[in-house]
Amino acid sequence: MALCRNAKGPLSRMLTTRSGVSYGQRYSTAATAIPIYQSADDKTAFRYAFGVLSRRFSSQTPPAAAVQMTLIKQLRERTSAPIKDVKASLVQCNWDIEAAQTDLRKRGKVLAMKKAGRIATEGLLALAQNEGKAAVIELNCETDFVARNEIFQYLALTLAKQALLVENASQLVSGVHPVGLESLEELKLNLEHPKISGDTTVQNAITEVAAMMGENVRLRRGFVMSAPSPGVLSSYLHTSPQPGLGRIVGLLSLEIEDGNSPLDTVQRVGSELAVHLVAAKPLFLTKEGVSSDALESEREILKSQAESTGKSQMTIEKMVEGRLRKYYEEVVLMEQKFVMNDTMNVKTLLSNLSKEVGSPVKIDNFFRMEVGEGIQREEASSADEPVAEAA
């Protein structure tokens, strides 16, 4: 008790001392107050009080390494953010996991905006389909690692379903129609994933996932195909991590003259043709559909190759026409050899199908898309823009 009474005076005066102010005879007027002990009791009392203060401030020191690792793991599981960002936010917030989670979201959105100009050539195609319509969107990221992430995949599937619900006057007509990305990005959607949930817009959801992944995430394009009536839609996704996702999609619509024909048989052949689209990469449906520019370009290439042989002009013309027939077999769907039975072409396959179902069947439209195709050309064409230079 005596010790505590002796400590009150010196200690209270020490704690209230400010720089450059002198209280009585016991403290100097230096920039930092330094206690001047008058007796051994004063010195002992100071040491006791300093020990109490040290124990009080020690509660704000970082937790043990094992506890830190547990908090990092928990926050990483909550947010899927990169480990270095998780740790930085926990340190910034004195290892308060709730505050760190809020800080991560704020920090991540800023970084996502900065990374928006970086080239994203990886990603996934997502397909949503009902009886009369199918929607395909391409969601890009920078690495295949992010494309395998469950949150990224959930977002891609959600966006495809949202694109399928968008009503557009042009989509009422059978064919392939682009999705208006600006309109899609402004739409509201309800996310129901444990790590990203709640009502938000499509654009905000993309930014949120980009913040979590630490990469540029970009909704690049989307298309909708409407089925003819009567008719069916058939699709195939290649390199598919789960239903509705893949890196290459083949999609086509088959029109049937008689609506009472067995659709299951038509659907089966349609599914095989969708696989054919992915493997054979056709550019045109029929020979008549080949664009004049494409045909003229190919003719010039073939003519140049034939002239290098030094043969007569008549022979060169025959060589060019023969090679053009080969060109049609490579790029025209109806002329291609069917990949599942190369003894016949697609035209013959459809003829056989029509006989089997008792009604003419024809391909109304087809569509093939691959992740990242054309992105390098896009970037090259805009290389003079600041964002492309920064990428």
Automatic annotation (TrEMBL):
GO terms for biological process: mitochondrial translational elongation. InterPro entries: EF-Ts_dimer_sf, Transl_elong_EFTs/EF1B, Transl_elong_EFTs/EF1B_dimer, Transl_elong_Ts_CS, UBA-like_sf. Residues 134-373 form the Translation elongation factor EFTs/EF1B dimerisation domain. PROSITE patterns: EF_TS_2. The keyword Mitochondrion applies. SUPFAM superfamilies: Elongation factor Ts (EF-Ts), dimerisation domain (SSF54713), UBA-like (SSF46934). GO terms for cellular component: mitochondrion. One of its GO terms (molecular function) is translation elongation factor activity. Coiled coil: none annotated. It is found in: Mitochondrion. Keywords: Elongation factor, Mitochondrion, Protein biosynthesis, Transit peptide. HAMAP family: EF_Ts. Belongs to the EF-Ts family. Associates with the EF-Tu.GDP complex and induces the exchange of GDP to GTP. It remains bound to the aminoacyl-tRNA.EF-Tu.GTP complex up to the GTP hydrolysis stage on the ribosome. This is Elongation factor Ts, mitochondrial. It comes from Populus euphratica. The gene is LOC105113644.
